[in-house]
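Our consortium's second objective concerns turning raw sequence data into structural hypotheses that experimental partners can test. To show how far this objective has progressed, the report includes one record in full. It was chosen at random from the queue rather than selected for favorable results. The single chain below, 418 residues long, was entered without modification.
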Amino acid sequence: MQHNKCIVVGGGASGMLAALYAARGGARVTLLERNEKLGKKVYITGKGRCNVTNASDMEQYQRNIFRNPRFLYAAFAQLDNAGMMALVEDLGTPLKVERGNRVFPVSDKSSDVIAALKRGLDGAGVEIRLNTRVTQLLTEDGSCVGVALEDGKSLYADAVILATGGLSYPSTGSTGDGYALARAAGHTVTPTLPALVAIDTVESWPGTLAGLTLKNVTLTACLTGGKKDKRLYSQMGELLFTHTGISGPLALTLSSLLPEDLSTVRMSIDLKPALDEQTLDARLLRDFREMSRKQLSSVVDGLAPRSLAEQLIRLAGLSPTMPVNAVTAQQRAALLKVVKGIELHPKGLGGFSEAIITRGGVNVKEINPSTMQSKRLKSLYFCGELLDVDAATGGYNLQIAFSTGALAGASAAAMTGE
């Protein structure tokens, strides 16, 4: 068994797995974390419950990875979702599967997942140094031979794994250190943007409904400006109105797919995706007959929450207090059109401080997908959010971090140094 020295920079999801797999592969591992504890970002994932992974099959994974899914084949072969679940449970934290195949600890405490991984690191003999920030990679003859620390000291190793995360939630220490280190090593970093984040809208009326959640609605987005609109996204699920626009799972996923030029995008919300227009119109006619002497808001209350119902009526150019028996066929058609497609236009995205992940990162063409080793600098490995790979919500991004970390760690341990 080899005894390479391996330094892992970053003690988040990918860094902990990289250190664990490197140590289990026979390397002497030092894990460097700039914060006062490991897994600071893992702690806040899943609203503090830690959505460890997603239990769907790999075909579903490929559909939910937005950028460079093929790059991850070897990483998933090293550690897939079943393997990750088994690992966490073997380390003493039982898991459960919830709606959408999301996997959480039975305790609903992210701290239990971090504690399990910490037990694994301790059991494998990983040296953990907290409050330790790396400022430079040390290179020699085309290889990475160690790191320089903020305190002026240097550490040397046979392999260095960068697992510093992206730019999302900078309060957890993700301030882009890894991108600077990657560039210094000769790597290209694709433009970084907030992803899985709320969408601000041109329209101001969503702010009057802030906090209202819609379930089983369809959010669609199209690119306009060409001869024909091009559908960018369409999915049924949950949506939330915010003070500045929309959020919730549907909006978060869409945010990762939007182009930089938001002026070309038109969004729409179908409140009744299970009903076609003809069926919905028949329902409206029936309700109009049964409540002919009531105000229009009373009828639309059956289609949406009251606060939204009144907004729908106004968007259709009508008054909530209008008598139902005064509504013309043309006005009913206008109301129907709104219910089946509330139009919104994005004007911006939330910032990195609220983004779940970072879109963009180290160009994967410059990394060997079979090992996660740099093609620019020998003995240097990358994993996690630092890479230009991202996915939908639901545990996919954490699994990518765990899998790429595991492959980087195993590869670093097996490296001959030649």
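The partners drew two points from this record. The chain has a mean pLDDT of 94. The domain at 5-193+359-414 is CATH 3.50.50.60 (FAD/NAD(P)-binding domain). Both points have been shared with the crystallography group to help prioritize constructs.
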